[in-house]
C-alpha cells in the first residue's frame, strides 16, 4: 500500500474519531442502573460509553451514593479512552472537591500516570522515535506529579509503581539534557555545553547519563582551553565511569573534531567535502524528519484536479505579492477589475 493511501486512511480515521459524538444515555435510568451499566462498559473496555454514563451519573445524581466513586472512575475511564488531559482535569477536580477522601491518593497517582502517557503521541507509539530527544514537557510534569504523590502518600499501595516510573522519567530527563549538550558541542557553543553537562552531573546523580555529562564537560573545557577543569572532569570520569564510550583504553576520545583534526580533503576543499552532517536541534530526530519528508512527497503526488480551486499545484510556490481577488472579481471573471 502506498504512503499516500496510508495517509488518506489515517486522515479519515482521525476525522471520524474527532467528529464522533458521545453516545446518548437513556433518561429513564436510575442511579443504580446507570452505575451498573457504566461498570459493565468498563469491564468490556467500552471506555467511550463508560465516560458518557459516568458523566451522566455525576450530573443527574450529584449527591447520590455513587457520586464520589463515579468521579474516581471517570479519571480512569478518560485515561483508558485515550484522553490524558481529560483524566488530569478529572483528577484535579476530585482532589479539589474531596481533599480528605480515603481514596484521594488514587487521584494524585492517576494524574501522574496521565501525564506519563500524554508524552506518547500517535507517531511515538508506532514509529521508532527516540523519546530522550523529544520535548520533555509532559515527562517533567509527570515526574513532578509523582513526586507530589509520593511525598504526600509514601505508604500508598500505588507508591512503588510511582517510584519506578520516577526512576524511568529521571533517566529520560537526564538523557535529554545530554542530547542538548551534544547539540551545543556540534554548534561549538562550548560554554553552554559545559553548563548542560554540569547540570546533569549536579542534578541527576545515579542516572546512567552522569558519565556522559562528565564527558561533555571534559570536551567542552578542552575546546575552551580550561585545561585544569578538563583534567578534573576527565579524572572523575575515569574513576567512576571507566566503561564510558568516550574512553578508549583510558584515553579520552572527543566526539567533535577540532579544525586541525579534520581530514586533508576537508581542509583542502574548505569543508565543502567531508563536511559533518548538520546537527539537529534539541527535541527533533532523524525519524521525525523522515516522516515529514514522506508527508511532503505524498502531498506533491496529489493530482491537480483534486486540489481546491485557486490553490497552486504541489511544489509550485504561491506568489506572496499577488493581490488577492475579491468575491466580486471572481464572480464577474475579472471584467470590472
How is this structure best described in words?
The protein is an all-alpha fold and 337 residues long. It folds into two domains: 91 residues, Alpha Horseshoe (Serine Threonine Protein Phosphatase 5, Tetratricopeptide repeat); 157 residues, Serine Threonine Protein Phosphatase 5, Tetratricopeptide repeat. The chain has 15 helices and two strands. Strands 1-2 form a two-stranded antiparallel ribbon. Helix 9 runs antiparallel to helix 10 and helix 11 packs antiparallel against helix 12. The longest helix is centred in the middle third of the chain and has 28 residues.
Task: List the SSEs and their pairings.
Elements: H1 3-19, H2 31-43, H3 47-60, H4 67-80, H5 84-97, H6 104-118, H7 122-126, H8 137-152, H9 159-186, H10 190-203, H11 209-224, H12 227-240, E1 247-248, E2 251-252, H13 264-268, H14 286-300, H15 327-331
Antiparallel strand pairs: 1-2
* Unreliable residue stretches: 1-6, 121-133, 270-278
Domain unit count = 2
CATH architecture of the largest domain: Alpha Horseshoe
State the end-to-end CA separation.
48 Å
Give the total of beta strands.
2
CATH topology of the largest domain, what is it called?
A: Serine Threonine Protein Phosphatase 5, Tetratricopeptide repeat
Strand content: under 5%
Helix percentage: 55-70%
Query: Averaged pLDDT, please?
Result: 76
CATH class of the largest domain: Mainly Alpha
Order of helices and strands: HHHHHHHHHHHHEEHHH
Strand order of the largest sheet: 1-2
Shape: elongated
Signal peptide: 1-22
Keywords: Cell outer membrane, Lipoprotein, Membrane, Palmitate, Signal
Function: Part of the outer membrane protein assembly complex, which is involved in assembly and insertion of beta-barrel proteins into the outer membrane.
Main location: membrane
Amino acid at each position: 500500500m502506498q504512503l499516500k493511501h496510508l495517509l488518506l486512511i489515517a486522515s479519515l480515521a482521525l476525522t471520524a474519531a474527532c467528529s464522533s459524538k458521545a453516545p446518548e444515555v437513556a433518561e429513564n435510568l436510575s442511579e443504580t442502573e446507570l452505575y451498573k451499566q457504566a461498570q459493565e462498559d468498563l469491564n468490556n473496555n467500552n471506555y467511550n460509553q463508560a465516560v458518557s454514563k459516568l458523566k451522566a451519573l455525576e450530573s443527574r445524581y450529584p449527591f447520590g451514593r455513587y457520586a464520589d466513586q463515579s468521579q474516581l472512575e471517570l479519571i480512569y475511564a478518560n485515561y483508558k479512552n485515550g484522553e490524558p488531559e481529560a483524566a488530569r482535569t478529572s483528577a484535579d477536580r476530585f482532589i479539589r472537591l474531596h481533599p480528605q477522601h480515603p481514596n484521594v491518593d488514587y487521584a494524585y497517582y492517576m494524574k501522574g500516570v496521565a501525564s506519563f502517557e500524554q508524552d506518547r503521541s500517535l507517531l511515538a507509539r508506532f514509529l521508532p522515535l527516540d523519546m530522550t530527544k523529544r520535548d520533555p514537557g509532559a515527562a517533567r510534569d509527570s515526574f513532578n506529579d509523582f513526586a507530589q504523590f509520593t511525598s504526600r502518600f509514601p505508604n500508598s499501595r500505588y507508591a512503588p509503581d510511582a517510584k519506578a516510573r520516577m526512576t524511568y522519567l529521571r533517566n529520560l530527563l537526564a538523557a535529554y539534557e545530554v542530547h542538548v549538550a551534544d547539540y551545543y558541542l556540534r554548534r561549538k557553543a562550548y560554554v553552554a555545553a559545559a553548563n548542560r553537562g554540569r547540570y546533569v552531573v549536579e542534578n541527576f546523580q545515579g542516572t546512567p547519563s552522569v558519565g556522559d555529562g562528565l564527558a561533555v564537560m571534559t570536551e567542552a573545557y578542552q575546546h575552551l582551553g580550561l585545561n585544569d577543569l578538563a583534567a578534573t572532569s576527565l579524572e572523575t570520569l575515569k574513576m567512576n565511569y571507566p566503561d564510558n564510550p568516550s574512553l578508549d583504553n583510558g584515553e579520552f576520545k572527543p566526539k567533535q573534531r577540532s579544525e586541525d583534526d579534520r581530514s586533508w580533503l576537508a581542509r583542502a576543499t574548505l569543508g565543502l567535502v567531508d563536511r559533518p552532517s548538520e546537527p539537529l536541534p534539541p527535541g527533533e530526530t532523524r525519524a521525525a524528519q523522515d516522516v515529514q519528508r514522506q508527508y511532503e512527497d505524498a502531498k506533491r503526488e496529489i493530482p491537480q484536479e483534486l486540489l481546491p480551486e485557486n490553490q497552486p499545484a504541489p511544489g509550485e510556490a504561491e506568489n506572496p505579492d499577488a493581490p488577492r481577488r475579491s468575491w466580486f472579481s471572481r464572480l464577474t471573471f475579472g471584467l470590472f477589475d
